[in-house]
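tool_call: predict_structure(chain=1)
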Amino acid sequence: MKNLLAGIALFGTFALASAQTITFDKTTYEYGQIKPNSDGTRFFTVTNTGDKPLIISNVKPSCGCTTPEFSQAPIAPGKSAKIKVGYNTATVSPFNKMIEVFSNDPVNSRSVIYIKGEVTPNAPEPKPLTAAEQKAKAKAEKKAAKMAAKTASKK
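tool_result:
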């Protein structure tokens, strides 16, 4: 009987060890001080550190001022995807917004990420992007838009 219980426990441990696992490059994106009506778009990188495909089923902002875009396409083990988060910077005020990320990760089926900062007319002028940064931003935005369109067409 002890051997049977030990075998079941070992199998259960192995079954949990071989699963999809969601990992974020950061869980809070700090905007700092930004000017009103400036670009409120930021990206979170999601990586599947497990050994089975990871699927993000939903990304839910805490309010209408935050608009996430994501793909429901499976993320292969070891691969990454982006969650695009837009914040409406028209209102002058500090902000701290929560965004829920739902996935098929058996341990973290609901993860929480945050954006925070302050929209103020006294914010310093944004630093101009280098050519490489502009190219990387354009590529990330194009990929996020393509994934969002693909997700929208599935609904």
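agent: The chain is about 25% helix and 35% strand. Proceeding to next step.
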